[in-house]
Write a structure and sequence with these properties.
mainly alpha
């Protein structure tokens, strides 16, 4: 068992970096699923797939909604997720570097 006293700033920075990475991957999965559904693909109803899609929507959509207020879709293209990911990368760099020292 690892003691909390044994954690270094680098360990905490790696943990925070991993959390940001997981969130960015969730955003990419959400974007990909929305794109697939927009192309007309339908997933047969399953409580598991429905739970996954609802989870992704609940986790990712509040963050993306911030950017959709300022960057409306252009036709069928929504650039707000791209800007949201870029902003998240910058925030990630700032926070991880501040923690790591």
């Amino acid at each position: 068992m690892i003691s909390l006293a044994a954690l270094t700033r680098g360990d905490v920075a790696n943990y925070v970096d991993a959390l940001f990475t997981v969130y960015i991957v969730l955003i990419f999965i959400y974007i990909l699923l929305n794109w697939i559904f927009a192309m007309g693909a339908r997933v047969p109803y399953s409580r598991y797939t429905d739970a996954i899609i609802n989870f992704l929507r609940d986790v990712v959509e509040p963050y993306l909604r911030i950017f959709r207020r300022f960057i409306p879709p252009l036709g069928m293209f929504d650039f707000s997720p791209i800007i949201a990911i870029i902003v998240l990368y910058f925030i990630r760099m700032l926070i991880v570097n501040a923690i790591a020292g």
